[in-house]
């Protein structure tokens, strides 16, 4: 566990294991413990780095929230840990951070996994979607509702309770980040991504549904799309076994291709 100063913001990170580096970037509202099951799975063969985004977990608050700032924080941690290149895995908002990082330092990235994310929210639903979540944010039971909609429909109470425990930001930080990611648009840069990309989403993800994942895959030339069964928006929680196996298989393929 440690902290890095990134333009005056104290950014929290964890490192487990040794070997080739993988950086895991969490979703809006969560904290780096979201990845605990992935850390456990990958740490025997990889150096696993998890990071708390600005305003999340143990990282300082920073309003207004900007995805670009978070990507810079990831670069700062790579620099601090003397990591030349890493695999990047981002879920939801973490996927936006991964794409922003690619625009910033493409030479520092070996591969990208984009899970349950999108290039942009379609114009015709953006305002309605944004305002509905902001209204939900005002409710006393917001965290419970956040957890419920983050996992798949029909999830048991044990998984929902576990997800509640992974919430990691104030309502003010959540609001600022939510407004930001409702206005990101990576559509025009996707065809510039020139490295292996795994696009994944849950078959029951109604926040970032399959059609948004398909758009990513269709516009990133070295990409493929995998669906995770019986999984919602936080697919790594809904079905960690399948999530881990798909990422591990992808990374093995990437490393094999780099050796030939």
Q: What would you say about this model in short?
A:
By secondary structure, the chain is α/β, with parallel strands linked by helices.
Query: Class in CATH?
Result: Alpha Beta
User: What's the CATH superfamily, by name?
Assistant: Alpha/Beta hydrolase fold, catalytic domain
Order of helices and strands: EEEHEHEHEHHHHEHEHH
**What amount of the residues lies in strands?**
15-25%
Question: How many whole angstroms does the radius of gyration measure?
Answer: 17 Å
What is the overall silhouette? Answer: globular
Structural class: alpha/beta
Number of domains: 1
Going across the major beta sheet, what is the strand order? Answer: 1-2-4-3-5-6-7-8
Say what oligomer this is: single chain
Helix content class: 40-55%
- The third-level CATH topology is Rossmann fold
User: Any idea what the CATH architecture is?
Assistant: 3-Layer(aba) Sandwich
Distance between the termini: 36 Å
Uncertain residue ranges = none
Number of helices: 10
| Main sheet characteristics | 8 strands, mixed
What is the total tally of β strands? Answer: 8
Overall mean pLDDT stands at 96
InterPro entries: AB_hydrolase_1 (IPR000073), AB_hydrolase_fold (IPR029058), AB_hydrolase_sf (IPR050266)
Pfam families: Abhydrolase_1 (PF00561)
GO molecular function: hydrolase activity
Keywords: Hydrolase
């Amino acid at each position: 566990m440690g902290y890095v100063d990134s333009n005056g913001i104290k950014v929290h990170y964890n490192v487990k294991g040794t070997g080739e580096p993988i950086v895991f970037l969490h979703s809006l509202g969560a904290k780096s413990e979201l990845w605990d099951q992935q850390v456990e799975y990958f740490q025997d063969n990889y150096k696993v780095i998890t990071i708390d985004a600005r305003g999340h977990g143990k990282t300082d608050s920073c309003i207004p929230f900007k995805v670009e700032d978070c990507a810079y924080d990831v670069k700062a941690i790579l620099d601090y840990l003397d990591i030349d290149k890493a695999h990047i895995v981002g879920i939801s908002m973490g996927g936006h951070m991964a794409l922003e990082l690619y625009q910033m330092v493409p030479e520092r990235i070996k591969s990208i996994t984009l899970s349950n994310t999108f290039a942009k929210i379609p114009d015709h639903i953006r305002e309605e979607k944004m305002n509905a979540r902001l209204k939900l944010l005002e409710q006393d039971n917001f965290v419970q509702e956040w957890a419920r909609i983050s996992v798949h429909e029909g999830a048991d109470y044990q998984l929902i309770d576990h997800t509640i425990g992974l919430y990691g930001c104030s309502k003010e930080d959540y609001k600022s980040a939510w407004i930001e990611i409702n206005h990101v648009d990576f559509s025009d840069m996707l065809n510039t991504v020139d490295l292996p990309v795994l696009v994944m989403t849950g078959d029951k993800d109604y926040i970032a549904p399959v059609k948004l994942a398909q758009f990513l895959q269709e516009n990133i030339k070295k990409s493929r799309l995998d669906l995770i069964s019986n999984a919602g928006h936080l697919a790594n929680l809904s079905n960690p076994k399948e999530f881990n196996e798909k990422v591990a298989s992808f990374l093995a393929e990437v490393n094999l291709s780099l050796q030939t």
